[in-house]
């Protein structure tokens, strides 16, 4: 994928932003995944070099003895993240379909109850997962990683990854670095059962804007 092609797309996206709104720059990656042949969906946690500029709403379902360090994160990074900390109170809220979070983190201990929420959290992609690091005995580590640019990707049932890769006010070099890092990361994750390349096409757009083919 050539930087020149990405630059042209970014130029058009930014030129069309007549209202000077700091839209998200979104990427759609069409994968060579065929669910009928049992190829597994892609699900990854990726540390973007410059993050994507999004302020995530994080819920940490943590037992009391682990909360002190998280409160320190909340105090020192108040501008970077919207962090809620608790356990059983939020479990009960989620049971009533009260879900206003982008990411939910749990520990192995609290997963005893959180796992009962699978039918609610699973379809929304919010179920904590040890593979992604969102079930952990070191919740402060994953939260700091999210603050510093880690994003979570999941391909949908059509084999497409939809994600934000930055914002309009990012420099072109920052956006290109994020895009190239993401693509190179995914290429290294190729499933051995696939025939051909993992990535088929890539489109770039702004929120509600025109999509441009860059790969």
Instruction: Tell me the Rg in angstroms.
Output: 18 Å
Low-confidence runs: none
Cα separation of the termini: 6 Å
Mean pLDDT comes to 90
Structural class label: alpha/beta
Q: What is the oligomeric state here? A: single chain
Order of SSEs: HEEEHEHEHHHEEHEE
Based on CA inertia axes, which overall geometry fits?
globular
Largest sheet: 4 strands, antiparallel
Provide the spatial order of strands within the biggest beta sheet. Answer: 7-1-8-9
Strand content: 15-25%
Topology, number of strands: 9
The helix tally amounts to: 7
- The percentage helix is 25-40%
Brief summary of the model shown:
With about 220 residues, this protein is of the alpha/beta class. It contains seven helices and nine strands. The chain has helices at about 5-15, 65-75, 90-95, 110-115, 120, 140-145, 170-190; strands at about 25-30, 45, 55-60, 80-85, 105, 150-155, 160-165, 200-205, 210-215.
Note down, in words, how this protein is organized.
30% of the residues lie in helices and 23% in strands. The chain contains seven helices and nine strands. The protein has helices spanning 3-15, 67-76, 88-95, 111-114, 118-121, 139-147, 172-188; strands at residues 24-31, 43-47, 57-61, 82-86, 103-106, 150-154, 160-167, 199-206, 212-213. The chain has a four-stranded antiparallel sheet with strand order 7-1-8-9, with helices on one face. α2 (67-76) links the parallel β3 (57-61) and β4. The longest helix is centred in the C-terminal third of the chain and has 17 residues, at 172-188.
